[in-house]
Design goal:
The protein has 374 residues and is α+β, with helices and mostly antiparallel strands. The protein is 64% helix and 8% strand.
């Protein structure tokens, strides 16, 4: 599940460096947004969206009391929903927004990215504020990654270190906090399509200070800019990781360019798949087989009309969708063969039923189209 961590807040009601569920974050930011509009007050709050492993997957700044958003998720939706992106970015955006929306309380869900706060009463605000804060206090825990280390380090040194040591430690921790604040906004820039701004910001940070998630964002941006050598260097001179990401993006031209500079059996296999050269893909040796490549191989065998081999490739992984696809292919193929047989039998008759033959022929075409599109 996703969670929210506020890094910097101009309001004391939002505690920083504490991890909240999406549900609790929506409740408290809705309460504050409503209340602040009532009293004509505004406050900004920087936040991260964290995944299950506490990697930062999105960051932004929420403006409370501005009327721009109902709550923190509504803010993200309004930032992203109207932006035009390429197909891959759109898919990522939709997946991210759908994941967020699942965790929003039902009474705070929006359908078009816009909501009105008119009609909310002070009693409702006060009631919500009390219940949300009590729930939040029961459920919040310290977040992961460098932020939790900062908190824990500060706590330890406040009790065991000398004054001089504490002063030096605090300075170190402040540097770490500034580093995190420098990174704040990078993901929002990337998701909003400001690749140049995000790339410039990430390139100014020491690579050793980047988390794995930040490195992935950085590498993705470098690939988009066709800076393949720098992307490979970022991955410790392991081109396999870069090639795999390019393949996942589905950019055939980029994959072809990368294969020319960093040739490998993996790249040849992936490129043949994307170019639908099924025989070339199957003949490629020395390929590092992953779950994804077993899936690609099974699909290639279907395209070669080799159901048995497709099943053997699929047996290496647990993929219900793939198994269903093979099952559908096998069933449809039998239906095509049966329809062909009926057409042949009808054509052998002395008195042919032309209407029946026509109907069966059209049915066969539809079945073959299904096979083609699997």
């Amino acid at each position: 599940m996703l969670s929210v961590m506020f890094m910097k807040s101009e309001t004391k009601e939002l505690k920083t460096f504490q991890k909240l569920s999406i549900e609790d974050a929506c409740e408290i930011t809705f309460t504050l947004e409503t209340h602040y509009q009532r009293i004509n007050k505004k406050a900004n709050a920087d936040f991260f969206i964290l995944d299950e492993e506490d990697n930062e997957v999105y960051s932004g700044t929420l403006s409370l009391g501005s009327g721009c958003a109902l709550h923190v998720v509504d803010h993200i939706k309004k930032k992203l929903i109207s932006l035009k992106m390429d197909d891959i970015q759109e898919a990522r955006k939709r997946s991210f927004l759908e994941q967020l929306e699942k965790e929003v309380p039902d009474h705070l869900k929006t359908t078009d990215g816009s909501s009105s706060l008119e009609g909310a009463t002070e009693d409702y605000v006060q009631m919500n504020q009390t219940s949300v804060l009590s729930t939040r206090n029961r459920r919040m825990i310290y977040g992961g990654g460098i932020l939790s280390l900062i908190i824990l380090s500060a706590t330890c040194f406040s009790t065991v270190a000398t004054s001089q040591d504490r002063a030096e430690t605090i300075q170190d921790l402040q540097k770490q906090v500034k580093l995190e604040q420098k990174i704040t906004g990078t993901y929002e820039k990337a998701l909003l399509g400001d690749s140049e701004g995000a790339l410039k910001r990430l390139s100014s940070i020491n690579e050793q200070s980047l988390t794995s998630e930040q490195k992935n964002v950085y590498m993705s941006l470098l690939i988009d800019q066709k800076k393949y050598e720098k992307a490979v260097k970022l991955q410790g001179n392991h081109p396999e990781a870069v090639e795999s990401m390019i393949s996942k993006k589905g950019d055939v031209n980029a994959l072809k360019e990368f294969q020319q500079t960093f040739p490998s059996p993996n790249g040849a296999f992936d490129l043949a798949y994307h170019e639908q050269r099924w025989d070339d893909m199957m003949s490629q040796s020395g390929v590092e087989m992953t779950d994804k490549r077993y899936e690609m191989k099974a699909y290639g065998y279907l395209k070669l009309d080799k159901v048995k081999e497709a099943k053997e490739a699929a047996a290496h992984i647990q993929n219900q969708d793939l198994n269903q696809k093979i099952e559908t292919y096998e069933k449809t193929k039998k239906e095509v063969e049966e329809t062909k047989k009926q057409v042949e039998e009808e054509n052998k008759k002395d008195k042919k039923d032309e209407n029946k033959i026509k109907s069966l022929t059209e049915q066969q075409k539809k079945q073959e189209e299904v096979l083609k599109n699997i």
